[in-house]
Specification:
This protein is mainly beta. The chain is about 0% helix and about 25% strand. It has one helix and 17 strands. The protein has one helix at about 190-195, and strands at about 20-25, 30, 45, 55, 75-80, 90-95, 100, 115, 125, 135-140, 145, 165, 175, 185-190, 200, 210-215, 220. The strands form four sheets. Strands 6-8-10-12-14-16-17 form a seven-stranded mixed beta sheet, with no helix packed on it. It is elongated and about 55 Å long.
């Protein structure tokens, strides 16, 4: 770990170190730098102080031995690709207070089964859960307005199960291909007319898989 008097951690410090199994940060660190543990495929445990607020871009990318997210109450930001290809993760429950989660932060987590996102988030970033083929349960908080491009796409690979997701009535925009090539069972907290009124990018649904949206007044089956 870093000595208690060390207050600067360098980006990419342990990149591709396949021998590192655990790490403890000093209690002065506020941000895990970009690419700090990139490719540390044996890393299993990271101990963080309460001072950390941000996980940098690609910080834990391809840390395939991690089975729990090294997150603390007080964190606010997870940057792009931070936990991409973390194949050891099976469940994600982000603590309250995290409001900014970057694009592709959990892309390619091949064994991820469930995800729960915290109150206060308003946007699901581009590609957030792209190519997470076993993801079958997602809980979105009230107040989400924007689901980004490719956010939940390519989930039908490897004979994956359907994605069960509740879409809050607060959602006003669905990005291009956000559920493409995925089988989706969604519950929308509004009517069919309110669903149709949501702004949608091209190809939100369709490709491999099939999708159904349960609205308060019936079910819509989508292929586009």
């Amino acid at each position: 770990g870093l000595h208690k008097d060390v207050c600067i951690a360098v980006g990419g410090a342990f990149e591709d170190n396949t021998q590192l199994t655990s790490f403890t940060f000093s209690d002065t660190i506020t941000r895990i730098p970009d690419r700090f543990f990139y490719g540390c495929t044996s890393l299993r445990a990271v101990h963080l102080p309460d001072t950390v607020t941000t996980v940098g871009a690609y910080a834990f990318y391809q840390c395939s031995a991690l089975t729990d997210l090294p997150l603390r109450v007080g964190m606010t930001t997870i940057e792009e690709y931070a936990f991409g290809l973390c194949h050891g993760l099976t469940a994600i429950c982000l603590p309250e207070g995290i409001t900014n989660v970057g694009a592709y932060a959990f892309t390619g987590c091949s064994n991820l089964l469930s995800a729960e996102l915290p109150t206060g988030m308003t946007r699901i970033a581009e590609g957030l859960f792209l190519n997470c083929p076993l993801l079958n349960s997602v809980i979105l908080p009230e107040g989400i307005t924007h689901i980004g491009h490719l956010a939940f796409s390519w989930m039908d690979r490897n004979n994956a199960t359907s994605l069960d997701i509740r879409i809050p009535k607060s959602v006003s925009y669905l990005g291009e291909q956000c559920f493409a090539n995925s089988s989706v069972n969604a519950r929308f907290d509004g009517t069919k007319a309110e669903w149709e009124a949501i702004e949608k990018g091209d190809g939100c649904f369709g490709g491999i898989g099939s999708s159904g949206i349960s609205c308060t007044d019936g079910i819509l089956f989508l292929n586009k």
